[in-house]
Amino acid sequence: MTAAPSIATAVAMLSCIVTAAIALNVTTLPFDEGFCHLFGDDNLVRSPDGRSARLILNRYSGSGFISNDLYDHGFFSASIKLPSDYTAGVVVAFYTSNGDIFEKTHDELDFEFLGNTRGREWRIQTNVYGNGSTSRGREERYLLPFDPTVEAHRYSILWTSDFIIFYIDDTPIREVVRSDAMGGDYPSKPMSVYATIWDGSTWATGNGKYKVNYKYAPFVSDFSDLVLRGCRVDPIQQPDSARRCAEANEDLLTADFAVMTPKKRAAMRRFRQRYMTYAFCYDTNRYPVTFPDCDVIPSEQSRFFEWGETKYPRERRRSRRQIRKPPRAGDPKREADV
């Protein structure tokens, strides 16, 4: 049984909820209505009002939760506040997957937050896997225009039958359009929604050079403003579920967060120009033959080495005493500070 949170913990979690802005037009739900405990025993702590959860990594275990249902496409979102101080080797993830059902042909869509040494910034990685295509990873990595440890920011995954969009706050940062060229690499089977924190010392920071240092534990990440909008399905009765979900998927395609306006596309282009640090489409060392679904933009490609890393890293050290309210993703005021 999960231990009751202390008064200090309760206050901190409620503060996290208050400061998280909801820019997208979505309806949030209580934790127990949509999710359940996955692993980590007492390292998952629900808030007093039941609408958020805290995930903890210590020397004994990480922690995580999973949606109660699988979804045939959907919009999945959470406001997340990341651990501060020395976080090398720490991985926080918010993602969809069906790996527990389709072990060798699973689909997956990821937000992975990769910790760093003291004074250096968190990095975000997005992944797209379909039909077990883990050997053909479609990773991209980014820095952030704000400090994700000061207050919560919203991270969202829109997965439809035609396209995928990753959002940070109300700014789209990546769009994947389904094409014949992708074939089975496009995620198409029902997936659950997960949130986890765990020890990724073998690869997360400096390719494993910097490990988790439990002297700085516990590492705490808060999840609030939880959203599960999609058609719940039974993985055994997929044909029936597909027919039943047709109307729900059509509703998903016409929602405001699914419409890529010129303003949204401009914001996405600015974000990628300023903060993308790795692109699989430009990693010719790893993939000598460019993926057929890659939309190679010559002006963008010129900013990356042949191993996919940017030639112009924007990361900088931050003073531990630097306290400043971070702007939202896509805020042009941040450009002069990076």
Can you describe this structure?
With 338 residues, the protein is an alpha+beta fold. It is globular. It has a single domain, classed as Jelly Rolls. Strand 10 and strand 11 form a beta hairpin. The chain is built from five helices and 16 strands. The strands form two sheets. It has a nine-stranded antiparallel beta sheet. A seven-stranded antiparallel beta sheet has the order 2-3-14-5-10-11-12.
Question: What characteristics describe this protein?
Answer:
338 residues, alpha+beta, Jelly Rolls, nine-stranded antiparallel sheet, seven-stranded antiparallel sheet, 5 helices, 32% strand, disordered C terminus, hydrolase, Xyloglucan endotransglucosylase/hydrolase, secreted
Count, helices? 5
Can you tell me the number of structural domains?
1
CATH architecture: Sandwich
CATH T-level fold name: Jelly Rolls
Percent range for helical residues?
10-25%
Radius of gyration, in angstroms, nearest whole number = 19 Å
- How would a crystallographer describe the biggest sheet? 9 strands, antiparallel
Q: How many β-strands, per DSSP?
A: 16
Main CATH class: Mainly Beta
The proportion of residues in beta strands is 25-35%
Q: What structural class is derived from the secondary structure elements?
A: alpha+beta
**Tell me, what's the shape?**
globular
Order of H and E elements = HHEEEEEEEEEEEEEEHHEHE
| Low-confidence segments | 1-5, 7-22, 316-327, 332-338
Strand order, largest beta sheet: 1-4-13-6-7-8-9-15-16
How far apart the termini lie comes to: 45 Å
